Amino acid sequence: MAKPIPLPDITDEAAKELERDIKRGPTKLQKEIMEQNRAIFNQKRKVMIRDIVQEDKIVFLKMMEKFYSSKAVAHNVDKAILETIFKVAVSGSPYLRALIIEDKEEPVGFALLSFSFATEVGGLVVLLEDLYISEELRGKGLGHKFMQFIEQEYPLAKRFRLEVAKENTRAIDLYCKLGFEVLEYVQMVKNL
Fold it and tell me: What is the band of 123 on the pLDDT scale with cuts at 50, 70, 90?
């Protein structure tokens, strides 16, 4: 029998501090570092990754419709839910961050990130909810560049996590090359 891995002690105060940090969002210094990282990333790679704005609504919803009707997801999502996602994304919610990926100043993809605390690692988890790159640009390194970008954006994260459909072998190969491992859990949900 495997010996249990001891978890770090998480005090109520530490948990409250993490919750305050998530609600408060990045500090001024963290925002400056994030901006510097973006500038360096974009300059080196000629790819722009930026937060979504209201003017992105039409292109964002079109990309989301393509994503949710592809083999990358297990089921379609109602258009009303896509509208809700957009509203939350532009609202400044501390729980969701939406990013637009541009190539040559044209939107070619998007990503949705959410945030949680994992007891297994004792810290912040950045969950890559969705990553979409337009079909004609897949295999050109944008997914890899995006993953590098979020690791630079969240240097205090203890874990990056994502879900991928078993049939999406191209994405699985990419994530494995980037150091991701398969978690041997059965995921369960209860939608309300």
Answer: very high
User: Does residue 146 contact residue 178 with C-beta atoms inside 8 Å?
Assistant: no
Give the model confidence (pLDDT) of 59-96 as tens digits. Answer: 999 999 999 888 777 777 888 989 999 999 999 899 99
**Residue 141 pLDDT level (bands cut at 50, 70, 90):** confident
The model's pTM: 0.73
Instruction: Write out the residue range of the structural domain in which residue 172 sits.
Output: 12-177
Count up the domains in the chain and report the number. 1
- For residue 102, the cross-strand partners are 48, 107
Does some domain include residue 4?
A: no
Task: List the CATH number of the domain containing 154.
Answer: 3.40.630.30
- Does 56 fall in a domain? yes
Q: Is residue 169 part of a domain?
A: yes
Q: Are strands 159-162 and 123-133 parallel, antiparallel or unpaired?
A: parallel
Position 67 in a domain: yes
Half-sphere exposure of 2 (CA within 13 A, CB side): 3
